[in-house]
Amino acid sequence: MHLHRYEKWWLTFGIGSLVLFLVIVGISAFHQGHQPPSSVKTINYEQVDKVAPFNEPGLKKVEGKDWDYELVVVASAFMYMPTEVEIPVGSTVKIIATTKDVVHGYGVAGTNINMMLEPGYVSEYVTTMDKTGEYLVVCNEYCGTGHHTMKMMYKVVDVNE
Amino acid sequence: MNNSTFLCVDKRDARLAMAHMYVAFAALAIGGLMGLLQVFVRSGRFELPANIGYYQVLTVHGVMLGLVLTTFFILGFQAAAVSRTSGTFTAKQRLASWIGFWIMLLGTVMSATMILLNEATVLYTFYAPLQAHWIFYLGLTFIVVGSWFVIFAQLAKYAQWRKENKGEMSPLLTYMVVANSLMWFVATLGVAAEVLLQLLPWSLGFIERVDVAITRTLFWYFGHALVYFWLLPAYMAWYVVIPKVIGGKIFSDSLARLSFILFLLFSIPVGIHHQLTEPGITEFWKFVQVILTFMVIIPSLMTAFSMFATFELRGRELGGKGLFGWLHKLPWGDARFVVPFIGMAAFIPAGAGGIINASYQMNQVIHNTIWVTGHFHLTVATTVLLTFFGIAYWLIPHLTGRILTPQMNKLAIIQAFTWTFGMTIMSGAMHWVGLLGAPRRSSYSTYGDAEQALEWIPYQIAQAVGGTILFLGIILVLIIFVNLCWFAPKGDEEFPVGAIDKDAEKTPKILENWKVWITVLVALILVAYTVPIMDIINGGPLGSKGFKFW
């Protein structure tokens, strides 16, 4: 099929940019580890309260892992447990969350933490909280009448102060 | 040329197409009003009366505009386009179309009734395990099954044309309808499986539990193709109608067909890019579908090139000089050109936003924030919708035997600028506040006076201002619609169909070999989806019972 000369330039430039872009995204993902939350762990959503670690929601210090803390979150209509956590600034946190009923969102405003919580699945994400401040967590997947009241608060604090 | 054989849509086909248009514009009126209520509520300055819920209003808005307006308008436009370029339907084909129309309408009424009774406040994406009344799901099934009747009639007309014109390349517009209809059929198989095998029996109590991850994966197998199903009819108008409107020629027949084939191939094996932040799907398969998603940039670049090549060739033919002088020569007073042109221009930021959304890890920044709402109000509610309005301004009078008067033409241009102005404010505010983390699909809330949430409120007021201007735009387009249906002077409005540029090359035969393309499509779908779906089935958790949290 014949292509106009300018169209060849246009498509060469366009497809070239596209390939470069995908290579950058790919290197960022698979070499530097910037992956979206993609845990495949499952759980019986009706037994969440009885199964570790979800029987004790909250922030826990851990040793010998790539992260300093584990933040266990249980979502249900229309609340998160715990409702508030204090995180020392600079610490690396693994968020481990699930839902007891419908699909909920877990978006932490002002950060890149953003994941879906689906019944039967555990969602996980590792991140470093490197700025002090209060961060509002909102449910960003419609879950029913009280959806817009569903929240949690991160207080990232400087413990040395 | 076959293009000139059938200058006018047959009266019986015109009635069929118009039936679709009435439903589409009624849906626009209802859905638009719901949109106005939403932006008011979310500004924090207004509350809904009589216990009407925000999410119920949101469900009506999404179903009416995302599913009903689009599907009816597109199928009506396609019916007219096929009849215009390939000849009138046979009695059987027309009957099948009418049956499909009535089934879709029945389905719409069923689903709408359940939403109004507050039995289906599940939004238009109806994600399990929120469980709507079974009549809602059955109504959606009817909309899909009805649409199959309508597109099968259009495909049958195409097959008949091929038989009667052996060895010839089919009319371009009909070819595009075929590509879009095939995509729709293959895509709707996914949502049909979700509804018929999972949601419907589950809501009826025949099965107790559904696997939520499967329902979502089947939904998005359909859901992304759905947005191309909206977009491709706009492309049909851009490629085939606009060149004729401006007095030019279609730049290249083969490139137009090739871009539709690429859209067909890369519309379906890409749905997982809507599920990037979900558990249950591994990084590898998410990334594979991200790559496939980005392939659609290629036909988009081809389309942009073709459009501007057509514009420049015509502008220079009219004596336009210099690098951009030809732009002045285009018919800036003709609504049939200006209105879709604004839609095209809006596709530049809209497409850029789409690239951000699908960019794998970057998706986390915007996923389920109101940025996404801002994004698709640029794509479907500006690019697609303004092009549809631009189509309506000649199609409706063509079908009703009337004309677009200079006054209405002027009003149509005012409408488009009103829309652009309102959308710039509303979508701009949505994009910006989305980056700050404000969620989509949420009623007004200060989240216990959280500092961040309070910062979002000025943007929400801006959305209400933009949304109000947009509603004025809807009133204007409805005035034009009513005028063109019942009050405009009688006359002959042209159905513009462009001819191919005389210098264009002959179109390769392989572009019309559907066996090849359907095989490639099925292969791509199998590659992209087999392992992720098998993983969910094999490793899946206990399924979910239904919940009614509204």
Automatic annotation (TrEMBL), chain A:
<protein>
    <recommendedName>
        <fullName>Cytochrome aa3 subunit 2</fullName>
    </recommendedName>
</protein>
<dbReference type="GO" id="GO:0016020">
    <property type="term" value="C:membrane"/>
</dbReference>
<dbReference type="GO" id="GO:0004129">
    <property type="term" value="F:cytochrome-c oxidase activity"/>
</dbReference>
<dbReference type="InterPro" id="IPR002429">
    <property type="entry name" value="CcO_II-like_C"/>
</dbReference>
<dbReference type="InterPro" id="IPR051403">
    <property type="entry name" value="NosZ/Cyto_c_oxidase_sub2"/>
</dbReference>
<feature type="domain" description="Cytochrome oxidase subunit II copper A binding">
    <location>
        <begin position="55"/>
        <end position="161"/>
    </location>
</feature>
<feature type="transmembrane region" description="Helical">
    <location>
        <begin position="9"/>
        <end position="30"/>
    </location>
</feature>
<keyword id="KW-0472">Membrane</keyword>
<keyword id="KW-0812">Transmembrane</keyword>
<dbReference type="InterPro" id="IPR008972">
    <property type="entry name" value="Cupredoxin"/>
</dbReference>
<comment type="function">
    <text>Subunits I and II form the functional core of the enzyme complex. Electrons originating in cytochrome c are transferred via heme a and Cu(A) to the binuclear center formed by heme a3 and Cu(B).</text>
</comment>
<dbReference type="InterPro" id="IPR001505">
    <property type="entry name" value="Copper_CuA"/>
</dbReference>
<dbReference type="GO" id="GO:0005507">
    <property type="term" value="F:copper ion binding"/>
</dbReference>
<dbReference type="GO" id="GO:0030313">
    <property type="term" value="C:cell envelope"/>
</dbReference>
<dbReference type="Pfam" id="PF00116">
    <property type="entry name" value="COX2"/>
</dbReference>
<keyword id="KW-0186">Copper</keyword>
<keyword id="KW-1133">Transmembrane helix</keyword>
<keyword id="KW-0479">Metal-binding</keyword>
TrEMBL record, chain B:
<dbReference type="InterPro" id="IPR033943">
    <property type="entry name" value="Ba3-like_Oxidase_I"/>
</dbReference>
<feature type="transmembrane region" description="Helical">
    <location>
        <begin position="284"/>
        <end position="311"/>
    </location>
</feature>
<feature type="transmembrane region" description="Helical">
    <location>
        <begin position="135"/>
        <end position="156"/>
    </location>
</feature>
<keyword id="KW-0812">Transmembrane</keyword>
<feature type="transmembrane region" description="Helical">
    <location>
        <begin position="53"/>
        <end position="75"/>
    </location>
</feature>
<feature type="transmembrane region" description="Helical">
    <location>
        <begin position="516"/>
        <end position="537"/>
    </location>
</feature>
<feature type="transmembrane region" description="Helical">
    <location>
        <begin position="95"/>
        <end position="115"/>
    </location>
</feature>
<feature type="transmembrane region" description="Helical">
    <location>
        <begin position="337"/>
        <end position="356"/>
    </location>
</feature>
<keyword id="KW-0249">Electron transport</keyword>
<dbReference type="GO" id="GO:0020037">
    <property type="term" value="F:heme binding"/>
</dbReference>
<feature type="transmembrane region" description="Helical">
    <location>
        <begin position="416"/>
        <end position="437"/>
    </location>
</feature>
<dbReference type="InterPro" id="IPR000883">
    <property type="entry name" value="Cyt_C_Oxase_1"/>
</dbReference>
<keyword id="KW-0813">Transport</keyword>
<keyword id="KW-0679">Respiratory chain</keyword>
<feature type="transmembrane region" description="Helical">
    <location>
        <begin position="177"/>
        <end position="199"/>
    </location>
</feature>
<feature type="transmembrane region" description="Helical">
    <location>
        <begin position="376"/>
        <end position="396"/>
    </location>
</feature>
<dbReference type="GO" id="GO:0004129">
    <property type="term" value="F:cytochrome-c oxidase activity"/>
</dbReference>
<dbReference type="InterPro" id="IPR023616">
    <property type="entry name" value="Cyt_c_oxase-like_su1_dom"/>
</dbReference>
<keyword id="KW-0472">Membrane</keyword>
<feature type="transmembrane region" description="Helical">
    <location>
        <begin position="219"/>
        <end position="242"/>
    </location>
</feature>
<feature type="domain" description="Cytochrome oxidase subunit I profile">
    <location>
        <begin position="15"/>
        <end position="482"/>
    </location>
</feature>
<feature type="transmembrane region" description="Helical">
    <location>
        <begin position="21"/>
        <end position="41"/>
    </location>
</feature>
